[in-house]
Amino acid sequence: MNIVLIGYMGSGKSTIGRVLAKSINYNFLDLDSFIEEKEEMSISNIFKSNGEIYFRKKEAYYLSTLLETNNKTVIALGGGTPCFGNNMNTILTSKNSESIYLKAKIPTLVKRLFTHKASRPLITHVKSIPELNEFIGKHLFEREPYYRKAEHIINTDNKEEKDIIEEIIFELF
Fold it and tell me: Which CATH class is domain 2-162?
Protein backbone atom coordinates (compact mmCIF):
# COMPACT_ATOMS: atom_id res chain seq x y z
CA MET A 1 0.00 0.00 0.00
CA ASN A 2 1.11 3.57 -0.79
CA ILE A 3 0.20 6.43 1.52
CA VAL A 4 -0.55 9.67 -0.34
CA LEU A 5 -0.34 12.84 1.74
CA ILE A 6 -2.27 15.85 0.51
CA GLY A 7 -2.86 19.29 1.95
CA TYR A 8 -1.98 22.94 1.69
CA MET A 9 1.65 24.08 1.71
CA GLY A 10 2.91 24.17 5.26
CA SER A 11 0.54 21.43 6.40
CA GLY A 12 3.47 19.08 7.03
CA LYS A 13 3.28 16.70 4.08
CA SER A 14 7.04 16.40 3.56
CA THR A 15 8.01 16.62 7.23
CA ILE A 16 5.39 14.13 8.42
CA GLY A 17 5.91 11.99 5.32
CA ARG A 18 9.62 11.44 6.00
CA VAL A 19 9.08 10.55 9.66
CA LEU A 20 6.07 8.35 8.90
CA ALA A 21 7.95 6.46 6.19
CA LYS A 22 10.89 5.81 8.49
CA SER A 23 8.67 4.68 11.37
CA ILE A 24 6.76 2.12 9.25
CA ASN A 25 9.72 1.08 7.08
CA TYR A 26 8.33 2.58 3.87
CA ASN A 27 10.11 4.59 1.19
CA PHE A 28 9.47 8.33 1.05
CA LEU A 29 8.93 10.32 -2.11
CA ASP A 30 8.18 14.02 -2.54
CA LEU A 31 6.37 14.45 -5.87
CA ASP A 32 7.78 17.92 -6.56
CA SER A 33 11.36 16.70 -5.94
CA PHE A 34 10.70 13.68 -8.13
CA ILE A 35 9.47 15.93 -10.97
CA GLU A 36 12.52 18.18 -10.59
CA GLU A 37 14.81 15.16 -10.82
CA LYS A 38 13.06 13.71 -13.87
CA GLU A 39 12.77 17.06 -15.68
CA GLU A 40 16.26 18.13 -14.60
CA MET A 41 15.11 21.59 -13.49
CA SER A 42 13.35 23.24 -10.57
CA ILE A 43 9.57 23.56 -10.47
CA SER A 44 9.86 27.35 -10.80
CA ASN A 45 12.08 26.93 -13.87
CA ILE A 46 9.64 24.43 -15.37
CA PHE A 47 6.91 27.07 -14.95
CA LYS A 48 9.13 29.79 -16.46
CA SER A 49 10.41 27.69 -19.38
CA ASN A 50 7.40 25.59 -20.31
CA GLY A 51 4.40 27.10 -18.51
CA GLU A 52 1.92 25.80 -15.98
CA ILE A 53 -0.01 23.60 -18.44
CA TYR A 54 3.17 21.68 -19.28
CA PHE A 55 3.96 21.31 -15.56
CA ARG A 56 0.44 20.09 -14.70
CA LYS A 57 0.55 17.49 -17.50
CA LYS A 58 3.92 16.21 -16.26
CA GLU A 59 2.67 16.24 -12.68
CA ALA A 60 -0.36 14.11 -13.62
CA TYR A 61 1.82 11.72 -15.62
CA TYR A 62 4.38 11.22 -12.83
CA LEU A 63 1.66 10.89 -10.17
CA SER A 64 -0.11 8.20 -12.17
CA THR A 65 3.15 6.37 -12.87
CA LEU A 66 4.19 6.44 -9.22
CA LEU A 67 0.85 5.15 -7.99
CA GLU A 68 0.97 2.27 -10.49
CA THR A 69 4.56 1.25 -9.94
CA ASN A 70 5.30 1.91 -6.30
CA ASN A 71 4.37 0.02 -3.19
CA LYS A 72 5.11 0.74 0.46
CA THR A 73 5.85 4.38 -0.34
CA VAL A 74 4.72 7.52 1.43
CA ILE A 75 4.16 10.11 -1.31
CA ALA A 76 3.94 13.79 -0.38
CA LEU A 77 2.12 15.75 -3.09
CA GLY A 78 2.43 19.41 -3.95
CA GLY A 79 -0.36 21.51 -2.47
CA GLY A 80 -2.00 22.01 -5.88
CA THR A 81 -1.63 18.46 -7.19
CA PRO A 82 -5.08 17.16 -6.13
CA CYS A 83 -6.76 20.28 -7.54
CA PHE A 84 -5.79 19.95 -11.18
CA GLY A 85 -6.87 17.70 -14.00
CA ASN A 86 -8.07 14.31 -12.90
CA ASN A 87 -5.43 13.90 -10.19
CA MET A 88 -7.74 13.48 -7.21
CA ASN A 89 -9.70 10.79 -9.05
CA THR A 90 -6.41 9.09 -9.98
CA ILE A 91 -5.47 9.02 -6.29
CA LEU A 92 -8.86 7.77 -5.11
CA THR A 93 -9.11 5.01 -7.71
CA SER A 94 -5.56 3.76 -7.21
CA LYS A 95 -5.88 0.13 -6.09
CA ASN A 96 -2.99 0.16 -3.66
CA SER A 97 -3.09 3.67 -2.17
CA GLU A 98 -4.71 5.42 0.77
CA SER A 99 -5.02 9.21 0.75
CA ILE A 100 -4.66 11.37 3.83
CA TYR A 101 -5.48 15.08 4.03
CA LEU A 102 -3.21 16.76 6.57
CA LYS A 103 -5.56 19.55 7.59
CA ALA A 104 -4.31 22.70 9.27
CA LYS A 105 -6.26 25.87 10.05
CA ILE A 106 -5.31 29.20 8.51
CA PRO A 107 -3.58 30.62 11.64
CA THR A 108 -1.41 27.47 11.86
CA LEU A 109 -0.46 27.73 8.19
CA VAL A 110 0.33 31.45 8.49
CA LYS A 111 2.55 30.78 11.51
CA ARG A 112 4.42 27.99 9.71
CA LEU A 113 4.76 29.77 6.37
CA PHE A 114 5.45 33.45 7.11
CA THR A 115 9.07 32.98 8.21
CA HIS A 116 9.77 30.62 5.28
CA LYS A 117 7.97 32.53 2.55
CA ALA A 118 11.20 33.24 0.64
CA SER A 119 11.43 29.54 -0.22
CA ARG A 120 7.78 29.35 -1.32
CA PRO A 121 7.36 30.90 -4.80
CA LEU A 122 3.60 31.16 -4.42
CA ILE A 123 3.88 33.53 -1.44
CA THR A 124 7.21 35.38 -1.88
CA HIS A 125 5.28 38.52 -2.86
CA VAL A 126 3.34 38.60 0.44
CA LYS A 127 4.54 41.43 2.69
CA SER A 128 2.63 41.02 5.96
CA ILE A 129 0.92 38.48 8.18
CA PRO A 130 -2.57 39.90 7.48
CA GLU A 131 -1.86 39.73 3.74
CA LEU A 132 -0.68 36.10 4.06
CA ASN A 133 -3.75 35.29 6.15
CA GLU A 134 -6.00 36.64 3.39
CA PHE A 135 -4.04 34.87 0.63
CA ILE A 136 -4.17 31.48 2.36
CA GLY A 137 -7.83 31.92 3.26
CA LYS A 138 -8.80 32.54 -0.37
CA HIS A 139 -6.54 29.81 -1.74
CA LEU A 140 -7.60 27.23 0.84
CA PHE A 141 -11.27 28.01 0.14
CA GLU A 142 -10.65 27.03 -3.51
CA ARG A 143 -8.63 23.89 -2.72
CA GLU A 144 -10.47 22.49 0.31
CA PRO A 145 -13.19 20.71 -1.73
CA TYR A 146 -10.47 18.63 -3.41
CA TYR A 147 -8.57 17.95 -0.19
CA ARG A 148 -11.74 16.84 1.60
CA LYS A 149 -12.19 13.99 -0.88
CA ALA A 150 -9.24 12.19 0.74
CA GLU A 151 -10.06 8.87 2.38
CA HIS A 152 -8.73 10.08 5.74
CA ILE A 153 -8.49 13.53 7.31
CA ILE A 154 -5.98 14.20 10.07
CA ASN A 155 -6.11 17.55 11.85
CA THR A 156 -2.57 18.76 12.57
CA ASP A 157 -3.22 21.94 14.56
CA ASN A 158 -1.40 22.08 17.90
CA LYS A 159 -0.14 18.50 17.60
CA GLU A 160 3.36 17.15 17.91
CA GLU A 161 4.87 15.25 14.97
CA LYS A 162 4.83 11.97 16.89
CA ASP A 163 1.12 12.36 17.71
CA ILE A 164 0.24 12.95 14.05
CA ILE A 165 2.29 9.90 13.04
CA GLU A 166 0.57 7.75 15.68
CA GLU A 167 -2.84 8.95 14.50
CA ILE A 168 -2.04 8.09 10.88
CA ILE A 169 -0.74 4.62 11.82
CA PHE A 170 -3.82 3.98 13.96
CA GLU A 171 -6.06 5.12 11.11
CA LEU A 172 -4.40 2.92 8.48
CA PHE A 173 -3.19 -0.25 10.19
Answer: alpha beta
Q: Which long-range contacts (CB under 8 A, 24 or more apart) does 107-110 make?
A: 107/133, 108/10, 108/156, 108/157, 108/158, 109/8, 109/9, 109/10, 109/11, 109/136, 109/140, 110/136
Residue 29: in which H helix or E strand, if any? strand 27-30
pTM for the structure as a whole: 0.94
| Residue 160 to residue 156: CA distance in whole angstroms | 8
Q: Domain limits of the chain? A: 2-162
pLDDT tens-digit series, residues 12-67? 999 999 999 999 999 999 999 999 999 999 988 888 899 889 999 999 999 999 99
